[in-house]
# Entry
Amino acid sequence: MGVTSPGAAPGITVRAGVLEEYRTAPVVRSRALPPTPPGHTLIRTLAAPISRLDLLCASGRAYLGAPALPYVPGVQGVGAVVGPAGDAGGLVWFRTWAGMAPGDGALSEVVAVPDEDVFPVVNDVDPGLLAALGLSAVAALMAMTWTGGLVAGESVLVLGGGGVVGQSAIQLARARGVKRVVALCRSDRSMAAARSLGADCVQMRDDESPAELAARINELSSDPFDLVLDGLWGEPAAAAMLCLRPRGRLVNLGATAGDQAVFASSVVRGGARQILGYSNNDLSREQLLAALDEIGELAAAGRLEVAFERVPLDRLPEAWSAQKTGTASARQVVTFGP
# Structure
């Protein structure tokens, strides 16, 4: 599907964020226009989020090993296909393996991407919003539906309602016709965000046991939950297991609250409750394309949104540091344009 060329045009440069040292922010540099090998698509980047995976790879401590320096980070982005005459074509979402395999990522004005990692999306969606949603919204959707078997009329408990996955899950569950969504949140800001999206909320406390937390969650719902979307694990997951109906499902896709969740065997066996794991890496291209179609259409229709901040490329080092230290008020999305 891509426009191919034997190599880069001589003398043409593009600007990109380049990681030159581990555990530092990328710096903005001018680089030669990348070549477009056969089987690749040349894309003019419009927006690219700074993700947790980008930060992990740039630390030099990722499980796949330290990437070779220098390289351009950015494991996902939204852009326009570059035509033979340099004109911009249709809108696409794309992924890269920057930091995990040789090659550069999305934090560049122009990037060459293997055709199988390029996905056409609806043209009337805001590129910045779609970039902010990206793989986080894909995870929320597919963890609930493909892995969790969500159907209309069920009730959902979202562990971690303030992040992009949680915000997406609340809206995607409502779009799928669920009966009720309850979100477990840490901060006042997260509580406000989740409530604004239509969820009932419970705020976590540091001084309570899983049983006490479960009791407070259950106060909000007259019936046990059918599905738990869990990006936290740890004690929140132990509490959530006490809130599931018999044969209810807990789908885990993260462990930001701890690597271990402790609950009695009887909690699982007594109601034949299910604990399921989810990873975006298990999706086929067809599944990812279908998920992006649904996400793009809902976003274009104003039914799926997420808090994010548009940051011009010149402010990449500042935005990177804010995302890394947790001082950013929302997901940082680097934008490219005049």
Summary: The longest helix spans residues 127-147.
